[in-house]
Each structure stands twice: as structure tokens, then as C-alpha cells.
Design goal:
146 residues, five-stranded mixed beta sheet, Lysozyme-like, alpha/beta, single chain
Length: 146
């Protein structure tokens, strides 16, 4: 069994109407052997398990071995700019799955993908100017404080 230290929240940076078929096609097109997420939440709030929790997913390079990855479908506007466009059912489902995972892995820290960006100035905090990506397009630390 893997030791889980992080629950990483993502957005798919895709149209909100995408489903599991489109996501899996995207992973395959990237040449990945495993999906990028263990769970994906579609706009209707349905939580889809894409990958077994005991296997590593391709969520954040260098942070996958001890992480579980959860994504909500969406995260971009019509021009491809990052935006928090989660539906109410997605928000509720995200809280449900995170609570469930925390009950199973109480030691895990809930973070956003961007929070795992390198701390380039070495001040101990990853700030907006250091983010490699906007994902998941909202402040995970504020929404999911333990």
C-alpha cells in the first residue's frame, strides 16, 4: 500500500462539457500509460474513478508516488484562460471526495497542483509569480483548511 502525503486538486483545463471518454483520450494522446487523475468530477457532480488508488497517476511530475489526484472538469473560459468555473454540483462533489479521502488518509495535506510549483525565490512559500500552472484555478488552502 502506498503512503499518501498529498491529495492534489486539479482542473482539467478543458471544456466543462467533457466527460470521461474525452479525458481518457487526452491522456492517451499525451502517450501516458496512466491517467492524470485518480478521480474526475464532471459538471453534473458525478465523481468518476479513473485509476485505482493503489497505483500512481500522472498528476504532478515529481509528486505522484505519494499523492492522490482529484480533478474537476473545466477550468478555462472560451478563450482558454484559467477560471474557476466549477458548478455547484462539482463544488459539493469535490468536498465530498476530499472529506472521504481525508478520512482514509488523515495525514494527507490537501493542495492545488500549482501549490507544488518550485519555490524559486526560496522564501518557503509558493506565490502566484512562481506558479508553473494556474491549476486548479482557486485557492485550495483557503477552501480546504484542516
Amino acid at each position: 500500500m502506498r503512503t499518501i502525503t498529498h491529495i492534489v486538486i486539479h482542473c482539467t483545463a478543458s471544456p466543462q462539457h467533457w466527460g470521461v471518454t474525452e479525458l481518457m483520450h487526452e491522456f492517451k494522446a499525451k502517450g501516458w500509460k496512466a491517467p492524470g487523475y485518480h478521480y474526475a468530477i464532471t459538471q453534473d457532480g458525478i465523481i468518476h474513478q479513473l485509476h485505482p488508488l493503489d497505483l500512481v497517476a500522472n498528476g504532478v511530475k515529481g509528486h505522484n508516488e505519494h499523492s492522490i489526484h482529484v480533478a474537476w472538469v473545466g477550468g478555462i473560459d472560451r478563450r482558454g484562460k484559467g477560471i474557476d468555473n466549477r458548478t455547484l454540483p462539482q463544488r459539493e462533489a469535490l468536498h465530498h471526495i476530499v472529506d472521504s479521502l481525508l478520512s482514509r488518509y488523515p495525514q494527507a495535506k490537501v493542495v492545488g497542483h500549482r501549490d507544488l510549483s518550485p519555490d524559486t525565490n526560496g522564501d518557503g512559500k509558493v506565490t502566484a509569480d512562481e506558479w508553473v500552472k494556474l491549476c486548479p484555478c482557486f485557492e485550495v488552502g483557503e477552501e480546504f483548511s484542516k
